[in-house]
């Protein structure tokens, strides 16, 4: 099996940009935890069936897909319901991630997980790569990108792991506080390192 690099970072750190550069330039397979989280509650999924059985039909939109905003309202107002949902979905998400990672064909794979630290998913990876930016850069980027207030961004940052907590679990760090063209040399160096590590891993 390929070695797994857990890729994470705070809001507006550039995780998606970094993952896409690994894929575009080096054809590295990506498993995105956010996409998997959507797949396990997709139309016809076991996850969605159990959510409907628990919350009732009113948790669905007209097209029978999950009403995410309604679900968010429910779990924010009822901590017990949030726990129930986490207990249901987290094992499903982990199983699907492991299944997707087992099909990887590149020398190593990126497990992109925005909440890698918060959900203690670093154990699913052989190494952790953190995309790091100063907090002020995160605030400015998010305000500009999402057209939200500074206060809203600060509230989001407080709900996430801190910069220090992420860096504490990092094996590797990409600095992304400047222009994107400065990312590729860092990514190229890491790619070469990861290919070398995967070669050692396979020979053992």
From TrEMBL:
Signal sequence coordinates: none
One Pfam family cited in the UniProt record for this chain: CoaE
E.C. number: 2.7.1.24
Transmembrane portions of the chain: none
InterPro entries from the UniProt entry: Depp_CoAkinase, P-loop_NTPase
Domain of life: Bacteria
The protein's enzyme class: transferase
Catalyses which reaction(s): 3'-dephospho-CoA + ATP = ADP + CoA + H(+)
Keyword rRNA processing: no
Binding-site positions, ATP: 12-17
Main location: cytoplasm
Location relative to the cell: Cytoplasm
GO molecular function: dephospho-CoA kinase activity
Pathway(s) of this molecule: Cofactor biosynthesis; coenzyme A biosynthesis; CoA from (R)-pantothenate: step 5/5
Keyword list, A-Z: ATP-binding, Coenzyme A biosynthesis, Cytoplasm, Kinase, Nucleotide-binding, Transferase
Record-stated family: Belongs to the CoaE family.
Job of this protein: Catalyzes the phosphorylation of the 3'-hydroxyl group of dephosphocoenzyme A to form coenzyme A.
Protein name as it appears in the record: Dephospho-CoA kinase
Organism name: Vibrio artabrorum
């Amino acid at each position: 099996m390929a070695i797994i690099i857990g890729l994470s970072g705070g809001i507006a750190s550039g995780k998606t940009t970094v993952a896409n550069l690994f894929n575009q330039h080096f054809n590295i397979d990506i498993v995105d935890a956010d996409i998997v989280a959507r797949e396990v509650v997709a139309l016809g999924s076991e996850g969605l069936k159990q959510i409907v059985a628990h919350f009732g039909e009113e948790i669905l939109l007209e097209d029978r897909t999950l009403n995410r905003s309604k679900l968010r309202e429910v779990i924010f107002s009822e901590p017990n319901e949030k726990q129930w949902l986490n207990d249901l979905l987290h094992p499903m998400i982990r199983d699907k991630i492991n299944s997707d990672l087992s099909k990887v064909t590149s020398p190593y794979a990126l497990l992109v997980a925005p909440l890698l630290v918060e959900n203690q998913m670093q154990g699913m990876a052989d190494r952790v790569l953190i995309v790091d930016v100063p907090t002020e850069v995160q605030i400015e980027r998010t305000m500009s990108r999402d057209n939200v207030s500074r206060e809203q961004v600060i509230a989001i940052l407080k709900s996430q792991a801190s910069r220090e907590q992420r860096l504490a679990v990092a094996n590797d760090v990409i600095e992304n506080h400047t222009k994107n063209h400065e990312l590729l040399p860092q990514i190229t160096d890491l790619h070469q390192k990861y290919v070398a590590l995967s070669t050692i891993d396979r020979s053992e």
